[in-house]
Amino acid sequence: MEDLDTASPAPKGASKVMTIAALVVLTLLAGGGGWLVGGVVAPKPLSLEEAKMVEEAKAAVAHKKAKEAGGEEANNKDEGLPRIATEANGVVQLDAITTNLAYPTENWIRLEIALLFKGAPDVAMAEQIHQDIAAYMKTVSLQQIQGPRGFQYLKDDIEERVDLRSEGRVTNVIFRTFVIQ
User: Where are the alpha helices (DSSP H) in 87-172?
Assistant: First the structure.
């Protein structure tokens, strides 16, 4: 017991110096590692000729976009699926459905759906289906559609409603947009 009481503690100055030295070594290692990784990952600087080529390409793209925006504003509505497609493909894109959820009521949902018909598309039936989906979306809570499984259940429910409304004339329901806010 007496040996423990008489033992003198190690000098404090030496441990502080060792701690500072260890910090300096670790800092230098971290800096060197970062420099090495940065040199490997970072792209090499472009030469003068390559930089000119990139600038010319950017200018050409900007000029093309400006030309399209100025001369073809009327054709912007024709991009994507048309509202009523031709009889050849039988696709009808419904108007966007934007409504609040049943719970919580401050959350909103936006759906854009397209229907693939067997044969000729039926506009009146597509409008009935649109209204039915909009009414159904008002009864859905956020907890029901959370995650991939919830989205799959929602998709299955909508497909079932569409199948019942269309009496089998709609073969596929295509989800174009699904946003919850």
Answer: 123-137, 147-166
Structure tokens at 40: 């490997």
- Asked whether the whole model's pTM tops 0.70, one would answer no
Q: What is the pLDDT of residues 53-86, one digit of tens each?
A: 778 877 887 877 777 766 554 444 445 555 555 5
Angle at 158 between CA 157 and CA 160, to 5 degrees: 65
Element (H, E) at 122: none
Structure tokens at 148: 């991939």
Tokens, residue 81: 């699926």
Residue position matching structure tokens 């709609």:
170
Q: How far is CA 86 from the centre of its chain?
A: 31
pLDDT tens track for 106-135: 999 999 999 998 888 888 899 999 999 999
Please choose, from the candidates 99, 123, 113, 110, the residue with its C-alpha nearest in 3D space to the C-alpha of residue 155.
Answer: 113
What is the C-alpha separation between 97 and 84, in angstroms, rounded? Answer: 17
CB-CB contact of 94 with 113 (8 Å): yes
Q: Residue 62: enclosing H or E segment and its boundaries?
A: helix 48-71
In DSSP terms, which residues pair with 180 in a beta bridge?
Answer: 109
Inter-axis angle of helices 123-137 and 147-166, to 10 degrees? 140
Does residue 23 surpass a pLDDT of 70? yes
